Amino acid sequence: MGTNATTQASNAHLTTPTRLTGAEIVWATLVGEGVTDVFGYPGGAILPVYDALRKFPIHHTLVRHEQGAAHMADGYSRASGKVGVAIATSGPGATNLVTGIATAMLDSIPIVCITGNVSSKVLGTDAFQEVDITGITLPVTKHNFLISRTEDIAPALRYAFQIAKSARPGPVLVDITKDAQQGTAIFDFEAAKPRPHRIHPMRKVEDSGLEQAAELIRNSKRPVILAGHGILESGAMEQVLTLAERAQIPVALTLLGLGAFPASHPLNLGMMGMHGEAWVNHAIQEADLLIACGMRFDDRVTGTISTYATKAKKIHIEVDPAEINKNIKVDVPLIGDLREVLESLLPRISGRDGSAWLKTIDGIKGDSAVRDIKNLPDNGHLYAAHVIHDIWRITGGNAIISTDVGQHQMWEAQYYHHEKPRSLITSGGLGTMGFGLPAAIGAKTACPEKEVWVIVGDGGFQMTAAELATIAQEKIKINIAVINNGYLGMVRQWQEFFYERNYEATPMVSPDFVKLADAHGIAGLTVRTRAEVAEAVEQARSAPGTFLLNFKVEKEDSVYPMVSTGSALHEMIRRPGLNSLDDK
Amino acid sequence: MLHTFVAYVEDLPGVLTRVASLFRRLNININSLTVGRSERAGLSRLTLVCEASAEAGHRIQASLFKLENVVDVDDISQAPAVTRELALIKVAATRQSRSQIFELVEVFRADIVDVATESLTIQLTGVESKIEGLIQVLDEGENRILEICRSGKMTMRRGHHTSRVLKAMGAGPDDAVKEAGPAENFEDIAARDPE
After folding, report:
1. CATH 3.30.450.40 fits B1-79, yes or no
2. Can you give the pLDDT at residue A533?
3. Is the pLDDT of residue B169 over 90?
4. Complex ipTM, two decimals?
5. Is residue A335 within 8 Å of A358, Cβ to Cβ?
6. Domain B82-150: CATH class, spelled out
């Protein structure tokens, strides 16, 4: 952190053009863009930038692996809505970012990654730690820059922030050669401002389209709103709520949409798709109208496309024209910012009686409640569903939950009921194991006042467990719930269902996670029975520092329902009854 | 079907990679790609021809627009347009066989642009079928083709169609953007066209 004096000095740069080094320009531009925290790892080609850091009021979190830096920037952005920033050196530092960048790309998360590169004179010569990172990241960034002149740094960085945030957000990488960092140029923050972002010319919402959509909504008997991540990105929570309430339309959410519509709302159906509750998928399959809001008909939510919601007309409200008719053919595309489109649509929507349809859906729900594992009596087994449901109950649903990828992620989506936007941080599109822990560090950095939990499997935890040291160094308080079943659980489940229980390479021997935490000065506890869960969760919450709970859960439990690949959305594998569960 | 896209892109390093990478990712082969300076400073104009499903056109166009360096994209697969290609063909030719090639060149309205002791180079402009016609005739003759260099297709909409770039940059009423008119007019124009 800079002192007040240096803060003022650096802020002066923003109003008066000043000659600075490229390295100073990097930080001054970040300050100008409102950045207060960055995540990174130093190295030779980015050293000039690190050398200049002390002069600027920006907090740097030293990560243990650059993948962690990208995930932290990502978690920071998902929790706060701001642009996350990751910094790495050239070569291996830069390539280590790639998984994190791709994660942000697939989930449309605005982050800016800054990498150092070798001097422009030796670019392309296979110099030490040189890699063509702009080439490598071309398909996993919205855009990237290779900057070799000091005077280009500020305009490129400002442009990068604009690209990251605009329309459908995403990651941008700015690669800066070492000589550009070392050179000097006049820094003029105002002059470096990019021209207004070009609106995609295929974005258009015509009155006729809005009227058609309103007409479809008026005349539908069985409508469903499909609520996606775009609601959060556009900030359209209120508009979606108004649409649902006014026209009495039930709302199904995608994984990344969870939190965009309050879980406790009577019109909230829950998560759709591969591991969505049966009634949600049935409602979609029976619907006569789908109103897709900021979602992209991903294969994990549609099942087999040819059998998807065949009775339904489809309205697709989406900011990215390339998503229209990509997976599912739609009847009325409304291509624009979701909030703006809904604001134009809402005046055309009047009250509507939806009770018959809601009653039908309630009828389907009954059966599922009986099968729900959380309603089954305690049979001495510890199920992940119980653990997550208890965490939800005890935190009052108010925590930010960061998950990893796999079974625990799906159980989290089913049993932690998200009331508020940006309270679930999870890698949906890329499904990146190892995401949970670093993303939680990013989320906590963005929202220090919030309670942050990581729910992570034993497999994914070990992919980025080195970041425990980052937690220790930063003295961050989060709570870690390891759902430890001794398997790569979701892969094991697929082996059980589709590969004749051939559990090849899925049983996993892990270290004692409580001891591992202890080695980092982090307290922890192993939990083996359902009766211990609540107290352990309370203990973690009240601990002053980060606390790790190692939940030794049922080894061969599976996530139900499940729509297997190649099946229609309504053809689900359902949870077997209690007796068969005991046999396992 | 065969898609033809015309795009205006910023004249900067790496821009062509970004365009090409989009097709690579979709596993679509680019049949031909022609790039050169346009009427706007700092912008290159490219004509890209590829084989893809009819539905793919919308997505390709939308995705091209999403590239930061792409300023404008026009899908002219179905539009009335003038399409030309330039070919340079080097043919083995002795003193005896030259006159025969000269005749062919005459028929195809091509030009001889280089004559050497053992070869000559033909320059031919036209639509794809015309170029292929000459190549076929040469192939069937006794004069061996030594080298072929083809530019790939260049395409421009017919009629008083100024590019949308001009419109975007605030072209005045005199430059009013007029989309191509009814098809029969174009057939008339096409009839006058020597190709």
Report:
1. no
2. 96
3. no
4. 0.89
5. no
6. alpha beta
Q: What is the pLDDT of residue A337?
A: 97
- pLDDT value at position B174? 39
Return the residue in B68, B70, B165, B169 with the most chain A beta carbons within 10 A, the one to mutate for interface testing.
B68
Q: Do domains A4-187 and A207-363 have the same CATH topology?
A: yes
Query: What CA–CA distances, in Å, run from A353 to A48, A290, A422?
Result: 65, 17, 31
pLDDT per position as a tens digit, A121-177:
999 999 999 999 999 999 999 999 999 999 999 999 999 999 999 999 999 999 999
> At B16, is the secondary structure helix, strand, or coil?
helix
pLDDT score of A204: 87
Roughly how many angstroms between the first and final C-alpha of chain A, as a whole number? Answer: 55
Nearest Cα residue to A435 out of A400, A469, A459, A411 = A459
Please identify every residue of A annotated as catalytic: 66, 128-129, 178, 490
Q: Decide if B68 touches A, using CB distance below 8 A.
A: yes
User: Do residues A560 and A274 lie in contact, with contact meaning Cβ atoms separated by under 8 Å?
Assistant: no
**How far A200 CA lies from chain B's nearest CA (Å)?**
7
DSSP A423-486: -EE---SS--TT-HHHHHHHHHHH-TTS-EEEEEEHHHHHHSGGGHHHHHHHT---EEEEEE-S
- Closest by CA position to A168, among listed A38, A359, A316, A319: A319
Do the Cβ atoms of B86 and B125 come closer than 8 Å?
yes
Q: Cβ of B58 and A324 within 8 Å?
A: yes
Q: Which CATH number, 3.40.50.1220, 3.40.1570.10, 3.40.50.1000, 3.40.50.300, labels domain A207-363?
A: 3.40.50.1220
Residues of A in contact with B18 (CB under 8 A): 138
Cβ of A325 within 8 Å of Cβ of B66? The answer is no
Q: What is the 3-state secondary structure (H, E, C) of A337-360?
A: CHHHHHHHHHHHCCCCCCHHHHHH
Indicate the domain borders of chain A. Answer: 4-187, 207-363, 382-553
Report chain B's terminal Cα–Cα distance, integer Å.
23
Q: Which residues of B touch A143 (CB under 8 A)?
A: 67-68
Contact A216, A186 (CB under 8 A): no
**Confidence class of residue B164 from pLDDT cuts 50, 70 and 90?**
low
Whole-angstrom distance, CA of residue A317 vs CA of residue A294? 6
Question: CATH 3.30.70.260 occupies which residues in chain B?
Answer: 1-79
Q: At A582, is the pLDDT very low, low, confident or very high (cuts 50, 70, 90)?
A: very low
Taking the CA of residue B92 and the nearest CA in chain A, the distance in Å comes to 41
Whole-number Å distance between alpha carbons of A34 and A19: 21
The model's pTM? 0.92
Residues in chain B: 195
Partner-chain residue, chosen from A134, A146, A322, that has the shortest CB–CB distance to B66 = A322
Both tokens of residue A254?
Answer: 């995608």
Domain limits, CATH 3.30.70.1150, in chain B: 82-150
Q: Which CATH topology does A4-187 take?
A: Rossmann fold (3.40.50)
For residue A180, pLDDT beyond 60 = yes
Cβ-defined contact of B21 to A139 (cutoff 8 Å): yes
Give the whole-angstrom CA distance, residue A255 versus residue A405. 12
Closest CA in chain B for residue A162: B68
> Over the stretch A315-371, which tens digit does the pLDDT of each residue have?
999 999 999 999 999 999 999 999 999 999 999 999 899 999 999 999 988 767 777
Q: Which residues pair with A186 in a beta bridge?
A: A19
* A382-553 CATH choice from 3.40.1160.10, 1.10.10.10, 3.40.50.970, 3.40.50.300: 3.40.50.970
Q: CB neighbours (10 Å) of residue A18?
A: 18
- CA nearest B73 in A: which residue? A201
